[in-house]
Amino acid sequence: MPIFDNKITAWSAQADELIDTAVRNLDRIVDKNQWKVIEAFQKHKVSDYHFAGSTGYAYNDRGREVLEEVYAEVFGAEAALVRPHFASGTHTIATALFGVLRPGDELLYITGRPYDTLHKVIGKSGDGKGSLADFGITYAEAALDEQGQVDWPEVEHLLNDRTRVIGIQRSRGYDWRSSFTIADIEAMVQRIRSYNKDIVIFVDNCYGEFTETLEPTQVGVDLMAGSLIKNPGGGIAETGGYICGKRAYVELASYRLTAPGIGGEVGAMLGTTRGIYQGLYMAPTIVGQALKGSIYAAAMFELAGFDSKPGWGEQRTDLIQAVSFQQEQQLIAFVQGIQRASAVDSHVVPEPWDMPGYEHPVIMAAGTFIQGGSLELSADAPIREPYIGYMQGGLTYSHVKLGVLMALQTMLERNLL
Ligand SMILES: *Cc1c(COP(=O)(O)O)cnc(C)c1O
């Protein structure tokens, strides 16, 4: 074991005691989700021959077809599209939105500003080329109210007869707000349905999968999307995304992924199928490890005198743990400390840099097996006030604990604690 200062090991002992019940309660969610996944595998009679790769057009790839049935089953959806051909979460979400929106329609986000990379998809920033706006699809957004809740009077004001899709982002992303639980999303669905029965309710489910025992499509959401290098890939899927929901909408999305009339009938899986199945099988447990790590991190940083969001005792519905530091140097030490504890690339020291598309320098720790895989322990922070660091993931609880300990140790060594 690395040597940590006595002050830090004392906090760790205190944190372990503090969070004991919260961590054990998580096991109930993990057990339920683990069975939910195994039961879906059983129902669809998954066999080892389903894991074989396919080539060319890959018509009648049974492995791929059954994989999509299993995903639909787990998420309580009519249909799913689960493909390595989705290059990222943003690509997956864009495919879903382009699939169901038509020129003249409007997309209305009711959970405030969406995730950064979606701004260019919408056409809110950048030159707009190829964006929804470029295709004559307009966009409106209701900012969250002061309590961080949906501002319903504003939503009612913005709704109009062109509103075709309502967007909800489950996770806080990199904002200092709360994430929306499944119960919150269910209440949103009921309210939206009371205004309009036909609007397509879309959820960006990134970072949310398996943190609770139900998913948005099990409480009335029509369409949702997520990334396979986040939660549902279980740290094993090497690339890809999923879209699931009502069959008609998933089919429209499949026409955007491939071509109209072809849709999900083609798409060579090459050698990715087994990893995507096994990742889904692992996901409930790995997400549980990451969540335990987040609870421990929240408790440790609180003991060290920083604000954590969510707090260690709060309900969780995604993987992201935000910590508010007082100084820039603490933020940098935090990210560099996380990197120091990684198995991959621990010998490199992250530095703030001007990342394309960001207004401030950003520093990131990402010692991961899958490039950018954020179900693995990773941390990022824009260098700006208020100095908020974000961490997420961790394939093992022990690794997250060591990362947090190393982050605090690094701060201590630099006289920042
Ligand atoms: C990660 C994420 C995305 C985008 O996924 P990328 O793989 O980074 O393109 C979109 N929305 C949310 C909430 C996310 O967490």
UniProtKB/TrEMBL annotation:
UniProt cross-references to SUPFAM superfamilies, sorted A to Z: PLP-dependent transferases
Protein name: Aminotransferase class I/II-fold pyridoxal phosphate-dependent enzyme
Molecular function terms, GO-annotated: transaminase activity
Origin: domain of life: Bacteria
Keyword Transferase: yes
Organism field: Paenibacillus wenxiniae
Stored Pfam families: Met_gamma_lyase (PF06838)
InterPro entries named among the record's database cross-references: Met_g_lyase_put, PyrdxlP-dep_Trfase, PyrdxlP-dep_Trfase_major
UniProt keyword annotations, A-Z: Aminotransferase, Transferase
Keyword Membrane: no
